[in-house]
Amino acid sequence: MTQPRIAFLASPVDDAQHALADIVKQHGNVAPEEADILCPLGGDGYMLQTLHRHGGLGKPVYGMKLGTVGFLMNHYRSDGLLERIAAAEPAKLRPLEMTAQTESGTTTHSLAYNEVSLLRQTRQAAHLRIDLNGQTRVDELICDGVLVATPAGSTAYNYSAHGPILPLGSNTLALTPIAAYRPRRWRGAILKADTEFRFRVLDPYKRPVSATADSHEVRDVVEVTVRESRDRMVTLLFDPEHNLEERILSEQFVV
User: Fold this and answer.
1) Could you give the domains of the chain?
2) Distances in Å between the alpha carbon of 96 and those of 88, 112, 196, 245?
3) Which of 49, 218, 225, 242 has the most CB within a 10 Å radius?
4) Angstrom distance (rounded) from CA 161 to CA 141
5) Closest-CA residue to 51 (of 215, 218, 225)
């Protein structure tokens, strides 16, 4: 069996940089463009950075945790790495595509592997209209914000906002309000992955709103469209005893 060419990448934290130096001594290193597999060392934040920077290459990604949060990572061990990669199980993820229009007339396109969120920029609550597939479903949501989460991202900010955890491969997305004031009883929705979401800011000058795709923020938005990407897909690799589907399932039984 031919040894795969691995691109090792590391977050700036000391532990990750030390691990990078050690593991490159054992296995060498190649540029992401020349690699068969990408191996980021860090936490979930660094994994997301890696996907945003290199996801378009279509290379499978086997991450190892050397950070605070590592839900999308495997445990770090430098020994037996090639055997672990060979036995790893794939999890295929499609990101969200966000198109945000601002008060100044600019349009920004971004990808999100976890969630797209709209948040009030000032002490004034946001007033939002929500259309799904061209039909208005919420005339006026008065809130701190609202988000759309993927299954992989449903255990993160979405769960903190009391949104549902979505099974991997369920072909669904979570629509979750953040501190909704009106309508008080609305707790969000679980929707098919091919749903198109359109959010309109009803009073953008008095009640400005920002939109964030993972960590990319766009301020003073007036309209935001979100849909699951049809063109982009990434494959994350996980140790069988630590696979992403089981971890998402287990999160639903944490008390």
Assistant:
1) 6-93+233-251 (3.40.50.10330), 96-228 (2.60.200.30)
2) 25, 5, 10, 19
3) 218
4) 15
5) 215
Nearest-angstrom CA–CA distance, 173 and 166: 7
Residue 197 CB burial class (10 angstroms; 0-12, 13-18, ≥19): buried
Q: Render 205-238 in DSSP notation, one character per residue.
A: TTS-EEEEETTEEE-SEEEEEEEE-SS--EEEEE
Enzyme catalytic residues: 44
Whether the CB-CB separation of 58 and 42 falls below 8 Å is answered with no
Lookup: tokens for 24: 């490159």
Distance CA 190, CA 163 (A): 9
Give this prediction's pTM.
Answer: 0.92
Tell me what pLDDT residue 235 has.
96
> What is the band of 1 on the pLDDT scale with cuts at 50, 70, 90?
low
